[in-house]
Design brief:
Order of helices and strands: HHEEEHEHEEH
Number of helices: 5
CATH architecture: 2-Layer Sandwich
Strand order of the largest sheet: 3-2-1-6-5-4
Number of strands: 6
CATH class: Alpha Beta
Largest sheet: 6 strands, antiparallel
Mean pLDDT: 94
Strand content: 15-25%
Structural class: alpha+beta
Oligomer: single chain
């Protein structure tokens, strides 16, 4: 990721105008494809990392709309130099072993996430069983993230055009 400050990253996120918007079939389709890319996973999401929360543009397999940022795996993903984070067994990872999303419901064990444009969030696939991700699976999830990026940027462009038109 470019060396940007947290303030710049948050400004990019808010410029997209997508936080707290309704469900979108296109984004949901991307999350469903993430499940197909990572066999054995049961939860997939497109998450956006705000100041103190992780908000889900869409999430499949779990009935929540947001979580606290300090519980978020995706918050770690956006900080990864490579833009990709894979956790094979969260119970063995010191960053997550005591996380309530691991120790209680939904019982996360496996996580694979790819950072989205400008570090605004991540697309991820989550499983309740430890597993390894193949290079091919990570490559496919990364390609899927590129499609999500295109849609996020399109949404941001339309949002800002609407604001300009009102001005």
């Amino acid at each position: 990721m470019d060396e940007i400050s947290e303030a710049q990253r948050l400004q990019r996120l808010h410029d997209l105008g997508i936080l707290d918007t309704g469900e979108d079939k296109l984004f949901r389709g991307f999350a469903e494809q993430a499940l197909a890319v990572m066999p054995g996973t049961t939860i997939a999401a497109i998450s956006l990392i705000d100041t103190d929360r992780q908000w889900f543009k869409t999430i499949v397999g779990l009935g929540v709309k947001e979580t606290a940022r300090n519980l978020s795996f995706c918050s770690h993903t956006i900080q990864e130099t490579s833009g990709v984070m894979v956790v094979e067994d969260a119970t063995c990872d010191p960053r997550f072993a005591r996380n309530s999303l691991v120790t209680s419901q939904p019982g996360i064990r496996f996580y694979a996430g790819v950072r989205l444009t400008g570090g605004v969030g991540a697309i991820c696939a989550i499983g309740r069983q430890p597993r390894q991700a193949t290079e091919n699976e990570v490559m496919k999830l990364t390609k899927l993230a590129q499609y999500v990026d295109i849609q996020l940027l399109a949404h941001g462009t339309l949002f800002n055009l609407a604001i300009s038109a009102r001005a």
